[in-house]
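Our consortium's second objective concerns turning raw sequence data into structural hypotheses that experimental partners can test. To show how far this objective has progressed, the report includes one record in full. It was chosen at random from the queue rather than selected for favorable results. The single chain below, 338 residues long, was entered without modification.
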Amino acid sequence: MDLHREGKTGRIGIMSALSGIMDQADLIAFSRDRIERGSKSFASAAALFSPDVRASAYMLYAWCRHCDDEIDGQDLGHNTAAAPGAATRQTLARLRTQTTQAVEGRATEPIFLALQTVVAKHEIPARFPLDLIEGMAMDVRRETYATLEDTLTYSYHVAGCVGVMMAMIMGTRDQATLDRACDLGLAFQLTNIARDVAADASIGRVYLPADWLAEAGVPEGKVAASEHRAAVHAVTLRLLDEADRYYASAYYGLSHLPVRSALAIASARRIYADIGNVIREAGPNGKVSRAKVSSARKKWNVVKASGDTLTAKSSALVLRCPARSGLWTMSHNVSSRP
């Protein structure tokens, strides 16, 4: 199905709201540019989706990236220039209002028209976009994370809920698969936290569980101190081990996705998990800059993801999916349509 063409013929009702504001093809191109400049890892995986799913993934990501940048005073995740607290709270209120308007079909700006299009087409409950905004609010409130449970709750709000929305874009509604999609989002965010410990600490944010840091002998407010580098790295590795539990759980959701979607998600899973391997390989004295997976490693991860997809699809026919014992779980059933 050609989403560009379908938007122009009016076969999707919500597309009519774009008439006179932004051509559908332009909206997708605008969103694609955001993802290709903002996340090369996700862009690599998104290229494997079918055109229809890929277009929706682009538009959802563009909105997520925009909200994150607005709150952090960044452009595509770069050039941090945090605004004063009052200004940031005003930004948060505006984003919440604009997101609410989008899920209600009243958006006017390109980024929010992109969200509106995705939510309407795939019947995504308003809860999930607003859950992401709550994640932004947690940053604005400068919340602290005393335990792993706290870190996981934050991770749900900034990434797990996105995993759920992506699963819905791919046509999934059953609760078990949505839980596995959430697991992948949680794994991604735990990896992000491990990668960005130094950068986050430089702007006063610490997402590593405070009780883990205390156990490792790292005093409050000293995460970035050179004398605690080894101890902080040990805590980071512990978080990556936790992320691996969620990557492992997410694997069992692949069998419930269409083949192209399963391959794309399997590739994203492999590539992002490999960021953790890069961090492990670098050790406590590794570069402070964000860990990245090389192009060669990305290509190899896609090859391995092909095997993951084939194995997951084949084994699902004969093996029972293991339970998600001990993993963070969404509190409400979301499989029913809005």
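The partners drew two points from this record. The mean pLDDT is 86. The first helix runs from residue 3 to 9. Both points have been shared with the crystallography group to help prioritize constructs.
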